[in-house]
Every structure is written in structure tokens, then in C-alpha cells.
Design a protein that fits this description.
Helices cover about 35% and strands about 25% of the residues. By secondary structure, it is of the alpha+beta class. It comes from Tissierella simiarum.
């Protein structure tokens, strides 16, 4: 396989579709990752990433992103950054730094401003409505405020056999100010080595970090595991450890790709979706199911895809 790209969730499909044109034309995996994730960040109806991302408990959008070059193992990451349009681009720029490559909060914002990145109010009216509705539900119905933590994570392989990983998220909805999950953390939210492969995760960051799950998948692939077997083993093992020691596990979902273009996906929930494109396959959305620790998947039906668009664009109503 000369090139391939895999990503978490249905929300990535438009991005990887456009990015695949770059890979087909021999452009770099890094540029493909940046282009694809920026498209997700810029779309206001994806409420867990970028513009339109859901705010923290104070009504402020704090964004996290990570980027890794599998050739050099260089990483760049930001956490808790506010009022900048494309955190993935800032993370990519930071990956060029020998020191100070992971910046948080005000430090990340100062770096972004000095390097000419676009300032932008990331809190949309629709996100405000989600926030107000959740406050009302939390007070009146006793519902948990924490809902919505879908990271977009991607792995790309280009024709030069370079592999790159990238992530972007607004994190846990109504999180504490300054909270960061797994997404910007190398080894947890993402990891890639061009000599082996890469992985990226989505779900409850506090639990995903407990297993350094992206690094673990790449480690298993280094030992000879097929990406699918590596993904299944890593998710099942972490799920079981958390259940045994803590009584339960949060949502754990991963996608991975090796340097041959073979992919894997695993989840401990039903309904996880992922997006895939390769030199031999058109951009496709799959929906997963977990059965006894094994993940299976099938192509998303037109009905599923139509309902997805209807759901993310449906009016926000207050009961």
C-alpha cells in the first residue's frame, strides 16, 4: 500500500477525502493531516472539535491538539488554548521546536500570536445553547454535565513511507477550567513511528491516559501484531484492568495503521465510527460493534449517514 489514511469518527470523512488528493499527488502526510483536521476544526456542527466545540464549566472553549512526525519522532502539542482557529496548525508548528514543544494556556496563546496564527472567537451561538441546556438539565434532572468528548484523531501514510499522527478536540464538555485529556499527550492520544505504524485514541481521556494506549498499540505492532489484533488487545486489556481495579471503564476507542497500510480499530462501546481512505479504496465510513472483546465493523448505511447529518444539525430544544 503506497498511501493510506484512517481517522476516528464520521466527522473526519470530508477532511480525509480532501487530504487523500494530496497523498495521491505525492504530497506529505503532514500536510494531509493538517488539511484534514483543519476541515473538522472549521465545521461549526462538530461540537467536540474546534469552532463550535463545547465549552468548559465557565462557558469558555479551551482546545487541545497534538501532532507527531513518525520519521523524526518530533511532537508538538497545545492544551487549554483559547481564541485561535486551528490548534492542529499550532501543534504542527511546535513540532519544529527542539525545546518548548508542548505549550498550555496563556503560553500556547502567546506562541500562536507571535507566529501569526488566526485569532478567532471559537464559541458559537449553537454551542452556547448546548451549554445552557446542559446547565438546566444538570440542575433540574440531576444529569451528569460531562457528555461529549469525541476527539478527531488521524494517522496518515504517504508515498515516501512517512507516517504522521494528529489530534484535535475541545475536550470533555463542561470540564473544569484547565483540564486536559489524553488528546495532546504523546503516547496516550497519539503515537507514530514511520518504521512501525501509528495509533490515535478517542473517548474518556482520564481512562485512556491510564494505559498510554496509543504507544501500547504501536509497541504491539513492533512485536509483530497485525494492527487489528494490536488494537483489540490494547483496548481489551485496559478495559479489564480498569474494571478490575476501579469498578468500571470509560469509553475507549482507537484506530491504527501500520507502515504497510494495514489498519485496525477497536472499541469497548457500540456505535463508534471511523473513516478510511487508501490508494485502493474510496473514502468510507464504518460503524463498529464490540462483542466479547473483539471489534467488528461494517460500512455505514445511507440511513445511518442521513440520520447522522440530521442529528448534528437538529435544532436545540429546551424541555
Amino acid at each position: 500500500m503506497e498511501w493510506a489514511m484512517i481517522a476516528t469518527w464520521r466527522m473526519a470523512i470530508e477532511g480525509i477525502t480532501e487530504a487523500s488528493k494530496l497523498l495521491e499527488n505525492r504530497e506529505s502526510a503532514g500536510n494531509a493531516i493538517e488539511k484534514a483536521i483543519k476541515m473538522v476544526e472549521d465545521y461549526p456542527y462538530y461540537k467536540s472539535v474546534g469552532y463550535g466545540g463545547l465549552p468548559n464549566e465557565n462557558g469558555i472553549v479551551e482546545l487541545d491538539a497534538g501532532y507527531m512526525d513518525g520519521d523524526t519522532l518530533s511532537i508538538g502539542a497545545v492544551a487549554g488554548i483559547r481564541d485561535f482557529g486551528n490548534p492542529i496548525s499550532i501543534a504542527k508548528k511546535l513540532s519544529e521546536e527542539r525545546f518548548n514543544c508542548f505549550l498550555v494556556g496563556i503560553g500556547a496563546e502567546e506562541y500562536a500570536q507571535k507566529n501569526g496564527f488566526e485569532r478567532k472567537n471559537m464559541l458559537t451561538d449553537r454551542a452556547k445553547q448546548h451549554y445552557e441546556k446542559r446547565i438546566k438539565e444538570t440542575i433540574e434532572k440531576g444529569l451528569s454535565p460531562y457528555d461529549g468528548h469525541d476527539t478527531v484523531g488521524m494517522i496518515a501514510l504517504d508515498r515516501n513511507k512517512t507516517m504522521v499522527a494528529g489530534t484535535s478536540t475541545s475536550g470533555l464538555f463542561m470540564k473544569k477550567r484547565g483540564r486536559a485529556g489524553d488528546s495532546p499527550v504523546c503516547g496516550s492520544g497519539f503515537y507514530v513511528d514511520s518504521e512501525i505504524g501509528g495509533a490515535t485514541a478517542t473517548g474518556l481521556g482520564e481512562d485512556l491516559m491510564k494505559g498510554c494506549i496509543s504507544y501500547e498499540i504501536v509497541r504491539l505492532m513492533r512485536e509483530g501484531y497485525h494492527p487489528q489484533d494490536a488494537a483489540d488487545k490494547a483496548v481489551l486489556d485496559l478495559n479489564n484492568v480498569l474494571a478490575k481495579r476501579r469498578g468500571k471503564s470509560g469509553d475507549l476507542s482507537v484506530v491504527c495503521l501500520n507502515n504497510k497500510g494495514e489498519f485496525g480499530v477497536a472499541t469497548n462501546i457500540d456505535g463508534f465510527s471511523f473513516s478510511l481512505v487508501t490508494e485502493n479504496q474510496e473514502p468510507t465510513v464504518y460503524v463498529c460493534k464490540n462483542t466479547d472483546g473483539k471489534t467488528t465493523y461494517e460500512v455505514a448505511s445511507k440511513e445511518w449517514l442521513d440520520k447522522y447529518i440530521e442529528r448534528i444539525k437538529s435544532p436545540i430544544t429546551f424541555d
